[in-house]
Amino acid sequence: MHPLHLRSAGTSLVIATHRGEAEIIHWGADIGDTLPDLAILNEPIPPSSIDANVPAGLLPQASSSWQGRPGFRGHRITDGVPGFDFSVRLRVASATADGGTAVIVQSDPDAGITVTSNLTLHPGGLLELIHTASNHGTSPFQVDEVATMLPVARDAVELLDLTGRWCRERHPQRRAIQQGTWVRTGRHGRTGHDSSLLLAAGTAGFGNRHGKVWATHLAWSGNHEQFADNVADGRTMIGGSELLGPAEVVLQPGESYTTPSLFAAYSDRGLDGISEVFYAWFRARPHHVGAVSGKARPVVLNTWEAVYFDHNLETLMELAESAADLGVERFVLDDGWFRGRRDDHAGLGDWYVDETVWPDGLTPLIDAVTSRGMEFGLWVEPEMVNMDSDIARAHPEWIVGPSAASHKDGGRLPLAWRQQHVIDLVNPDAWQYIFDRMDTLLRENNISYLKWDQNRDLLEHGHAGRASVHEQTLAAYRLFDALRSSHPGVEIESCSSGGARVDLGILERTDRIWASDCNDALERQTIQRWTGMVVPPELVGGHVGPTTSHTTGRTHDLSFRAITALFGHFGMEWDVRSVTGEERQELKRFIALYKEHRGLIHSGRMVRADVPDESLMVHGVVADAEGPDGGIPVGATAALFAVVKTRTGPAEQVGRVAVPGLDPERSYRVEAIFPAAGDADYGHTFIEAKPAPWLATGAEATGRFLGEVGLPMPVLNPEHAILLRFTAF
Ligand code: DGJ
Fold it and tell me: What distance, in Å, lies between the first and last C-alpha atoms of the chain?
């Protein structure tokens, strides 16, 4: 059989089937359309080994003597006895390609198992893999794992993944690839603060803009594993799988299990190339919001760090008025508006407007907001319940636990978390109640936006006494999907104690992620940098918080907070009634800067310079070429860069710092748009008596010069940033 070859945006994927099972021969640089006879790749047979070549299969199998992590694990339950058909031998039944998609069917007729694999190489180079395993036998088959993985070239010798915690999501960690398996396991029942948004293997020292990188992401919001598996023969696979609980997936005859999508990107130009591939995919989606689809991301005011649970109509009206004066376009009422919810001990599940706080409902506030030209958004947490709620009292059987019996009938409850528990969405009545409440709220009120929160892990999560994170995750997805289809104009934000549900599974059903509860700009620089590796900035909420951060106690100038929030979906989470005088003018200026540049920020290429001084971050967004000659039109803003000082640096002078990513053939005018001489923060920002003259006068240079030679950057005080604009001429 001929190999299948998918090509797109500089990436090739070659799938061979001539050895009986499907195997990926190459995933990496585009190798052109002429392929040799792939028999030339048959490996030598080493001493003391199996008497055959061992393919690194699309679903690597023990039946082919693959010694690494298997692609498919499960067993048949015959007459109630488990353990049969424990070693399937999948052989290719058919392999076809159409456009960018290959469909491969592999089957083991004796074991009664067929796996259909769909591999799509999207136009921007993003690869998507999905396997569907079907039981064709006459008895139940328990699926323990279907892992989706890809081989990486041998020159991938380093591994990068992300980890974190509440208020410190998505921080990088690196290590050498060595023999053995590096596994990142998520048992939170949600994606998790520590979940690795991507797992990347690359050539030695790969960086922001250099080196070859192969990266995978698992689009799943439940339990999962991501891994890099370097087997004894030296081959490395990277990938991921849903982590199934005991007997969570038992296929009855004729039933199927489909894996979450594994997304994979290859880049020969470092991590920025990986972002380009992911961003191209996001921005090509028909429902994508942002500059590309003409749905400009509105300036947000979220009430959480402004008033917390202290809901009072008069205060909120004043806040709305103050927000409108600043230029806010979306006002989001956070937690605290529903029955019994005076703090975080009660109310979850009772999704009715609290009559004691809102005697006339939300309408007076919504009218005040919308009459000032702003959209109204509302916080909800549909999957959760407080024991102190009418719904928990009425339906104890809807509260998730490990036992078949409800906690009222002696069943055990999992440990409480923020005084809350989980609603069993696998129970159709519970699901319908939550859907109806959300649907009614959206029908009865002029709500354009939901901030959908999820504030606990799913522990000991069962339905009718059996593990059910898998089913709960699918039921939650169905809830998102049903509400979206009933209310197509309503946007949804995915929040989960900050950024604990950030993945492409949830992002298929939402329009924004709340990256972190940490609004401290210093922490946010790192959180947003690494979140932005996969998720484009138009989908990443970033808010200007109070002067002194509520979550870290650090105090930052407004400019540092605003320049940080600018490179996302900009908003504020601050009692802006207290912002007066010069500070208010400065805040207005940043809001205007955001409005002026959001078209660029939300459509351009993300660029992060490789700066040797680790106290300095240089990142920006460069417009994609669109002028008549294929370049940036003359006079257009071609790029916006932030130069960020995170701490003191070792040298007296920063020296020249290259600004990469611009068109080498094009000339640019560079100007510092913040701070400009006379700005309130000016003296705080620079350490020098006299910053480099070009900061005041502006400079002109080619993209080649700026990318190779750079500009002498000022020595900034720690935790300060400047903003540079590049205009083509
Ligand atoms: C956690 C979220 O991350 C916060 O932004 C806020 O909405 C609170 N929950 C409200 O309870």
Answer: 55
pLDDT for 687? 73
Distance CA 223, CA 218 (A): 11
The ligand 1 atom nearest the CA atom of 514: 3
The DSSP result for 26-84, as a single string, is EEEE---S----GGGGPPPPPSSS-SS----BSS--GGGT--S--SEEEEEEETTEEEE
* Residues 195, 197, 201, 207, CA torsion sign: negative
Which residues form the pocket of ligand 1, taking CB atoms under 6 Å from any ligand atom? 304, 334-335, 379, 453, 455, 495, 497-498, 514, 517
Give residue 279 CA to ligand 1 midpoint distance, Å. 27
Rounded CA-CA distance 544/563 in Å is 9
CA distance 655 to 677: 21
Tens digits of residue pLDDT in 350-361? 999 999 999 999
> CA 569 to CA 491: how far, in whole Å?
13
358 neighbors 342 (Cβ within 8 angstroms): no
Please tell me the total number of residues recorded for the chain in this structure: 729
| Confidence (pLDDT) at 292 | 87
Please return the burial class of 328, using the count of CB atoms within 10 Å of its CB with bins 0-12, 13-18 and 19+.
Answer: buried
Which residues 6+ apart lie within 8 Å of 585 measured at CB?
none
Of the residues 190, 304, 378, 524, which should be mutated to test ligand 1's pocket, given the most ligand atoms within 8 Å of the CB? 304
Contact 533, 505 (CB under 8 A): no
Residue 271 φ/ψ region, left for φ over 0, alpha for ψ in the -120 to 50 degree band, beta for the rest: alpha
CB atoms closer than 10 angstroms to residue 354: 19
Residue 451 Cα: closest atom of ligand 1: 7
What is each CA distance from 474 to 216, 222, 422, in whole angstroms? 22, 9, 15
Please give the distance, rounded to the nearest whole angstrom, from the Cα atom of residue 464 to the centre of ligand 1. Answer: 30
User: Catalytic site residues?
Assistant: 453, 517
- Residues 78-91 have a mean pLDDT of 98
Tokens matching residue 14? 């070659």
Which ligand 1 atom lies nearest to the CA of residue 344? 11
In the reported structure, the alpha carbon of residue 542 is separated from the centroid of ligand 1 by a whole-number distance in angstroms of 14
Do the Cβ atoms of 150 and 283 come closer than 8 Å?
A: no
Q: Examine the pLDDT at 676 and tell me if it is beyond 90.
A: no
Best residue among 338, 450, 497 to mutate for probing ligand 1's pocket (most ligand atoms within 8 Å of CB) is: 497
Mutate to test the pocket of ligand 1, among 335, 420, 452, 516 (most ligand atoms within 8 A of CB): 335
| Ligand 1 atom closest to 334 (CA) | 7
Atom of ligand 1 nearest to the CA of 302: 5
C-alpha to C-alpha distance for 515 and 541, rounded to whole angstroms: 6
Which pLDDT does position 216 carry in this prediction? 98
pTM higher than 0.90, yes or no?
yes
Instruction: Tell me the pLDDT tens digit for each residue of 471-502.
Output: 999 999 999 999 999 999 999 999 999 999 99
CA distance 31 to 311: 61
- Interval 616-675: pLDDT, tens: 999 999 998 765 566 777 777 899 999 999 999 989 889 999 999 999 999 999 999 998
Return the structure tokens found at 175. 């290590």
Question: Where do we find the tokens 């710092």?
Answer: 657
The CA 334 to ligand 1 mean position distance, Å, reads 7
21-72 pLDDT per residue, tens:
999 999 999 999 999 999 999 999 999 999 999 999 999 999 999 999 999 9
HSE (side-chain half, CA atoms, 13 Å) at 494: 26
Residue 379 Cα to ligand 1 midpoint, Å, equals 8
User: CA dihedral in degrees (193, 197, 199, 204; nearest 10)?
Assistant: -100
Q: Ligand 1 centroid to 51 CA: how many Å?
A: 59
